[in-house]
Each structure stands twice: as structure tokens, then as C-alpha cells.
Amino acid sequence: MTLTRHLPRALAVTVPAVALLAVTACGSTDAAPAATPVTPAAVSEQQPGNGDAGTVTATRLSVDAAGRAAQAALAQCRADGLGFVTVSVVDRAGNVQAVLRGDNAAQHTVEASRAKGYTAAAFGANTSDLADRAKGDGATVADLPGTLFLPGGVTVKVGNASIAGIGVGGAPDGNADQACAAAGLAAIEDTLR
Predict the structure, then answer these.
(1) What distance in Å separates the CA atoms of residue 156 and residue 165, rounded to the nearest whole number?
(2) Tell me, what's the pLDDT at 72?
(3) I need a labelling partner for 76 at 20 to 30 A (CA). Which of 35, 82, 86, 147 fits?
(4) Rounded to two decimals, what is the model's pTM?
(5) Helices (H), strands (E): how many in the chain?
(6) What's the N-to-C CA distance of the chain in angstroms?
(7) In this predicted model, what pLDDT tens digit does every residue of 42-84 receive, in sequence order?
(8) How far apart, in whole angstroms, are the C-alpha atoms of residue 173 and residue 31?
(9) 168 phi/psi in degrees, rounded to 5
(10) Which neighbouring-strand residues pair with 110?
(11) Are strands 153-158 and 161-169 parallel, antiparallel or unpaired?
(12) Is 85 exposed, middle or buried (0-12, 13-18, 19+ CB in 10 A)?
């Protein structure tokens, strides 16, 4: 009961403080700057923050490249008679950039494809190559939340840096998932720089 009486007062203080922090962190409340035009390049780079040595840039796939990779992966699965899979393209942090759920793909394939893509992106290696790391007595990397060490995830690299992952889930064999994900990478590989 005490909490409910003090909640409005806490919100009255907290909400403006959060808004003030957001304005301070994001800059002026003036009109929003013009949107950055979308480039046809497969990889787009975020702009550095005012030359401040405390910021970094992040390279990621463009929306067009992520879409092409997902389409190519699903097309390969369909050609292999596996149209009931889900394909996810994620950035290195595991944020979904594109997802295609095939006809009759079960719900669990959505999360499986995302987790395989994230695992490949985060570890910078294909999940089929990472499976041995998940074995052993006691805790292993397989215990990390959001990861899935089953074949079906491929890493997308620019140079030696992993920037994204393509994950496929739902085929009866993880190696079939892996082949579809590899087809997605092949569709955009020549545009990565």
C-alpha cells in the first residue's frame, strides 16, 4: 500500500529525469537532422561520434544485403525440399536484421535460426565448426544465453572481423541448415568490403 501511494511521486520525478538524460545524451531537442541516404553497398558503416576518442564505429550489413542473404538461404532450402525452415540474419550483437519464416516452419525454428546466426557472428566462426567447444564436463560455452552450437549458422566477415551471422533452423539435419546459410552468404560475399 505504501508503494502505490509513493509511485506517482516517484514517476513524477523519474520520468522527467530520464527525459533530461536522453536529451543530454542525444543532443539538442531541435528539429531532427536529415536522414542519411541509403547506399547500395552491402556493408554500411555508422559514422563516428564527433571525433571523440571515446567512440567507435560499427560495420554491419545493409538492409538490402541482409534481405538478399535471407532470400538466397531460403531459396536454397526450398530447392533442397526444405522450405519449412526459418532464416535469420543478425548483426554481431544478435539484433535481427532480416528474418524469413518458410511455409509451415514451426515456431521453434524462429529462435533456433536467430540463435545460430548470433552464435556464428559472436564467435566469428560457423556453428558447425564450434560444436566441439560446447562439449565437456561442467559448464561450457553452450551455457551462454542466446547461443546455439548446432550446425546451421555461418559468420559474415569483412576482412578478419565478424560483422553478422546467417542462421537457418528447421531442417531434419543441421548440415542441411548449414548449406542453406552458406548459400545466403554466397549471395552477398562479392559485395562485402
Answers:
(1) 5
(2) 98
(3) 147
(4) 0.74
(5) 5, 6
(6) 59
(7) 555 544 455 567 898 889 999 999 999 999 999 999 999 999 9
(8) 52
(9) -130, 135
(10) none
(11) antiparallel
(12) buried
Which pLDDT belongs to residue 89?
98
With a CB cutoff of 8 Å and minimum separation 6, the contacts of 58 are 45, 46, 91, 92
Question: Residues of 142-159 as b/e, b for ≥16 C-beta within 10 angstroms?
Answer: beeeebbbbbbbbbbbbe
Q: Cα(181)–Cα(16) distance, rounded to whole angstroms?
A: 46
Residue range 159-163: average pLDDT?
95
Asked if 100 contacts 87 with a C-beta cutoff of 8 angstroms, the reply is: yes
Q: Is the pLDDT of residue 114 over 80?
A: yes
Q: What confidence category does residue 146 fall into, taking pLDDT thresholds of 50, 70 and 90?
A: very high
The answer to whether 183 and 75 have CB atoms below 8 angstroms apart is: yes
Distances (CA, A) of 79 to 70, 73, 82, 84, 179: 14, 10, 7, 11, 11
Q: Could you tell me the CA-to-CA distances from 54 to 27, 51, 57 in Å, in that order?
A: 16, 8, 11
Cβ distance 171 to 150 under 8 Å?
Answer: no
| Close Cβ partners of 123 (under 8 Å, ≥ 6 residues apart) | 130, 141, 155, 162
E strand residue ranges, 43-130: 43-45, 59-61, 86-91, 96-101
Determine the residue type at 93: A
